[in-house]
Design a protein that fits this description.
259 residues, alpha+beta, N-terminal domain of MutM-like DNA repair proteins, Helicase, Ruva Protein, domain 3, 2 domains, 4-stranded antiparallel beta sheet, 23% helix, 22% strand, globular
Length: 259
Amino acid sequence: MPEGDTVFRAASRLHAALAGSELVRSDFRVPRFAAADLSGERVDEVVSRGKHLLIRTGEWSIHSHLKMEGEWRILRSGERWPKPAHLARVVLETPTTTAIGFELGLVEVLARDDEAEALAYLGPDLLGADWDADEAVRRIAEHPETPIAVALLDQRNLAGLGNVYVTELCFLRGLRPQCEAATVPDLPAVVDLGRRLIVANRDRVARVTTGVDRRGQRLWVYGRAGEPCRRCGTRIERGELGRSELEERVSFWCPSCQQ
């Protein structure tokens, strides 16, 4: 599931493959930008901002968001594509490399000068140079009635956490996902642990929150409805959480450990 760490790794791989090279071809397979042509532009850098990815080329920035299904693949020029062509949303080629964005939830070409405005709504980036824990805490505390899991998922409060991290973070802090932010006894500690979790996992393909990097043992409660809690043996519960049907997320918790 793409969260801030997934996008951070994708940006790092794309930067290593593309930065400093000239694009010999660009192909945007979304109607709004189908006529855009960045061939001849030099790729300056590739960076992540929360769950957003930015490929900066000259005066332009290619902005993408993976949503649930998206991914970026890097191939050698002429190498066979790993997915059907109709799933590609962006194709960027240098003399030696082809980068393909498959099933991206969002693709747009922005003027570099407009990039900051387009992402201005995001809170501090957990994996970025702009990280500001105090600001993240302040933004969450502004809406004390919001369930803590919803507040942590809100990218306007802090950018990068998704459902897996939030579910695991609530377990580790002994919080029911449904509890209101105002009832959390130590909100700065929650935010601090959230950052430590995602920083510890940013270079890993498989997320680990239990400290055990073995298949089936990496997470405490996420995706484990009906299974015994790894701490106390109580069956893990599952429920829907969100402020509207459009925002509903599946949540998991231990009714004993998370009081």
